[in-house]
Structures are given as C-alpha cells and as structure tokens.
From TrEMBL:
InterPro entries: DUF2827
Name of this protein: DUF2827 domain-containing protein
Domain of life (superkingdom): Bacteria
Amino acid sequence: MTKIRSLRIGITIGLRDAAESMWVNGIKQNALYLAKLFQHSPHQHEVVLVNTTAVEITSRLPWDLQRFPVRSFADAKDSLDVLIELGGQIDREQTSYLRSRGTKIVSYCCGPEYVQMMEAMIFSRRMCDSVFINQQYDQVWVIPQVMETSAHFFGVLRRQPVREVPFVWDPMCLDMRTRELPFSGEYRPRNTPKRLSIMEANINVLKFCLYPLLIAESAYRKVGGGISFVHVTNAEHLARNSPEFIGIAQHLDLVRDGKVSFVGRHDTPQFLSEHTDIVVSHQWGLALNYFYFDACWNGYALVHNAHLCRDVGYFYPGNDVEEGSNQLVRAIEHHNDDWQAYRARQRKAIRPFLSTHEPLIARYDELLFALVGDPGAGS
C-alpha cells in the first residue's frame, strides 16, 4: 500500500496593504494557485501563506482566509516541513532558523529577474536599496517562461542547480472578479466593428505595446472599418512624456484617424468586459502569462506570440507583424462564427495548467517528496 504523507507547506507572500488587491500584480494569484494545487494532492498537504512584511493580517484580504490562511513568519516558522519562497523574501536570520529545525527551503522563481536587474543597472531604475542573494536554499524551482532569460542567473548566484517546474493557473481569481459583471465577464458577440485592446504592462522590454500597435495598424490598413477603436492601457505616460513613442505613433493611420486611446492602468477583467472584443499581445522572453489565460478562458479572441501556449487564442510566431495582422483579421472576420466552440477549445487547451489537473499535482508531489528525501511517498 502506498504511504500517504501530508506535508506542512508555507508559501511566502509580501503584503503591502491590509486590503491588497489580487490584481496589483500576479504574485498573490501565483501563491493562491500553488496553494490550491497542494491542497488537491491525494496527500492532503496542509498549506499556509506566510507574510514576510510587517503589514497586519486582517479579514480585509480579498480571498477566502479559511481556505487559504495567512500567518506571519513568526507564527508559522515552527510548524513547516517546507517553505516555498515565492512572493516575499526571508532574510539570513529567518533562513538560518528554518534550516536549524530541518525545514526545507525552496526558491520559487516566477519573475524574469535577470532582465529586471539588467534594466535597473543600465537605466538606473532602482529596484532596491541593497541586494540580498540568499545562497542557503535547498532547491531552486523556476517556471518555464523565465528559464531562457534567468535560469543561469538564478543558478550561479544561488549556488544551486535549477529545476524547471510547471506553470500553474486557476480561474478562481477571475471568477471572483467577474461574478458581478455582465455574462460573468465572458465574451459575447456584437454586430459592430471590433474594439481592440492592447494591455501590455509597458514596464520593461518583455511585454511592450509597440508591436501590438503595429499589428493593429497593419490590420487596419486591410480591413479599415472592421476596427472601431484600439485602447492601449498602461500607456498614458508614454503618449504624454516619450518623444520617441509620440513620434512613431503619429505615423500610424490609427492615430491620424483618431482610432486610438492611450490610457492608464485598468483592471483586466472589467476592461475586457466593458471595452474589448479582441486582445492583441506581444511578448519577448516571457511566453506564458496569466493575462493570456484570463482572456481566453472567458472566450475573448487573443492574438499573441507566446509559443509556450500556442494552442490558445490566435498564434503568430516571433515578431512577425504580418502574420500577426493576418491572425487579427481572421479574428475580426470570423471569431463570432463559432465563439462558443472557441471558448470550449480554450478551456480544453488551458486544462493542463490548472491547479486541479491531476498530472500537474502528481508532478509537484514528486518534486516535494524528492525535496524532503522521501521519494517513496510521492509514488
């Protein structure tokens, strides 16, 4: 008979506000999805989110605190078999304490830190006042989309071989946010010219709005009135303060014809529901993203070049603007023909990434039990 062993697992988060939104960035969502995956293991792991900041833990946090409890490091430190450092960093003293009591510590890397650090150095974009590189982890886990840019950066500095681990997503946060929106935030056809949205973060070179703008422009030259408007979020500062951005934009027919707005930051699910028929996206070295799944799960056409999820949306390769515009025209002209079947196909394509997907759960159990030196328990 297979031995069932439950592990006590902590996943770090770094709260900045006692009522922090899950849509500020993806890191809180990442912690919740990973916690949910561990909870669905047949080994029935006990999971707690460990806050590494001094922010008070209150009932104002937007997730179910009964299902996903949050503890301070001080309250959690004596009851963990494994601590996964994901969204908040532990210091030298905390690391030493955990190691002294036999807790295994994993660095779970889900950000392109090499690129972020490189940009901070070159462009004086301050990320921190001092750099602490923890070199006392038991293992370093890296998700697929940051392996290319950052795996060796992590491995050399953290003095551990890097293990690639699966990407995990879940519709729970999306469902929570879209509950009160029309049609629960799901796409519905409109018999009007299409509204395009470009929602890149525009904070580094990895996800920037210029290539999607070029794709939209190329499609506009082909279908004209088939496009009613293009919204570009997280771009107001560029349209106001960047001579280079302004200079390029002024050469686009979309801009000359008054078909584009450059606006600030917006909540993704609500913006999709209220302003969007088709999303146009581009990434460079970050070929998986929650945003893609948030859009496609609810049936929105997504034109993108993320090769690690090429089966979702309307895929174009690399920086191929012409093929991107072809895919966009295809979405403009035919997405409504089978929009319900499209949504079903998207959910099937996303299923292997779900926190409830049994092979994904089994892979993480293998990783966990190898980490604690009990490979038989993971069988």
